[in-house]
Amino acid sequence: MSKILGNPRMLAIVIICTLVFGASILGGALGSAFGFGFFASSLPAIQLPAEKVADGFSTPVGKWDVMNTMITTWLAMLFLILISLRIRKNLKDVPGRLQALFEVIMEFFLGLCEQIAGKEHARRFFPLVFTIFIFIVIANWMGILPGFGTVGRIAAPEEIAHHHDIHDYHDPALADSQHKAAESKVEKHDAHHTDSHEGDHGAHLDSVKLHIFTDYQSLPIAALSPASLNEEVTFAEYNEKHGDVGVGKRAGHLVPFLRSANTDLNMSLAIAIVAMVMVHFWGLSILGIFGHIGKFINFKAGPIGFFVGLLEIIGEVGRVISFTFRLFGNIFAGEVLLMAMAFLLPFIGILPFLGLELFVGLIQAFVFSMLTLVFAAMASVSHDGGDHH
Amino acid sequence: MGDLGINLPGLITQIISFVILFVILSKVLYKPLVAMLDQRAEKITAGLEAAERAKEEAAKSEESIQEQLQEARAEGQKLVTQARETADRFREEEMTKVREELEAERARAESNIQRERDAAIEELRKEFAGLAITAAEKVVKTSLDEEGHRALIEGVLNDEGSRNN
Questions:
Q1: Could you write out the DSSP letters of every residue in A144-186?
Q2: Can you tell me the ipTM of this complex?
C-alpha cells in the first residue's frame, strides 16, 4: 500500500479514480436524491418507434420521413462501402492489415458455410450471410458510439402530441399568442374554439410523460440542468405546478439525430424479410418449384402431410418474427440499459455495459447470419429425400 | 404496428438500403476477395506440392549420395586392405631375402675365416717345422740325419697339434 502511495504516478491514478468514482456516485441519480446530482443527465424518453429527423414526402403507402435509424443505416452502409472500396483498391496477394482482417473473417464464414451448407452451396449462400453479419455488427457497434441517442433536437409538445396520434394539440403558449393576435383581428368564436380544444385532448396528454429542458445556450443538445431529473412529469402535473407549459420553459422530447439502426423494428424486419426471401429463392432454384412448394402444400402424404405443410408455413412466418424481435429486443434493451446506467452512475456505471453491448452486438449479428445460413441449408434439402432414397 | 414503429415506407426504405448494400458488397468486396483467396489457396497448394516433390527429390539424391559414399568407403577399405597385404607380403619377402643374404654372408665369412685359419695354421706349421729343424740342426748338428729328425719333429708336432686341437 505504501509502495503504491509512494509512487507519484500511482498516487495520481488512485486520486483520479477516487474523484471520478465520487463524482459518479454523487453526480448521478443516486446523488441527486441527496441534493447533488450535478452530472445527472435526463433519462431520455424511451420510445419504441424511431424518431423523425426530417420531413419527407407522401407516398401511396404512407408518409415517408427521414428517421434517425435510417441515417444510422446509411452511415453504416457508407462505412462498409468505403472500406470495401479501399480494400478493393489495394487488393494484393500479400495482404495489408485491413485486407488481412477481412480475409480472416471471410475465411471463417466461408468455412462455416461449407460446413453447414456443403461445398456446392457454400459460395452461393456466403454473400448474404456475410453481408448480414458485417452490417449488423457495424450498425450495432456504431450505436454504442457517443452521440448516438444523446445528441439531437428538442421536439416541441405539438410534435410529441402528434407522435401520440393527437393531431390537434397546440402549445398553450403559442395558442395564447395566436389567440391574442387572432383576437385583435377576428373576435367571433376564437375563445370558444380554443377552449374546446383544450378540453378535447387534455385527457389524452395526461398520460404522456415529458422532460423539461431548460434552455442551454440555445443549443439543441441534451445537456440538461440537474433539475430535469426531478421534473419528469405529465402534462397535467406540469400544468398544475408551473401553469402553462409554454410559459418560461418549453417542454419537449429529445429527438436524437442518430439512433442505433437495429433499435428500429423496420430495420430488423427488413433484414429478416430479405433473408427469408433469399432462403426461399434458393429453395426454389435448388429444389425446383414443385420440390420447394411441395414442402408447404403437400397433398401426397394424406391429411397429416397436408397439416404438417400448414405448420411449416406458420413456422416460416414465425422465423421472420423471431429473427426480427430477437435482434431488435437485444439491441433496444442494450440501448435502454446504457441510458439507464449513464443516468444512475455517470462515467463508471456504463463501462462494463459498454463491453457487454459490444459482445451482444457481435453475438446477435452472428446468430442472425448463422440462422440464415441454417435455414438456407435446410431449404436446399428436399424433405422427403432422406426417407425415400 | 404503428406503436411498434413499423411503417411500410420505412420498411421498404430499409429493405432497399440493405439490398443495395448486399449488391455493392457482393460486387466490390466478396467477388474479388474470394477470388483472391481461391487463387491464393491454389498457389499454396501448388507450392506445397512443389515443396513435397523437392523434398522427395532431395531424399532420393541423399540416398544415392549415401549409397555412393558407402561404395566409396567400401572401395577405400578394400584398397587399404590390399595395400596392407601387399606391403606385408613385400616386407616378408624383403625380410626373407635380407635374412638369406645375411645368412649367406655369414656363411661366406665363416668359411673364409675357416680357410684363413687353416691356411695360417698350415703356414705356421710349415714355418714352425722349418724353424724347429733349423733350431734342432743348430742344437744337435749332426747327431741325427736330417731324415730322422724330420720324422721325429713331425711326430712331435702332430702330437702337439692334436693336443692343441
A1: HSTTTTTBEEEEPHHHHHHHTT-TT---HHHHHHHHHHHHHH-
A2: 0.76
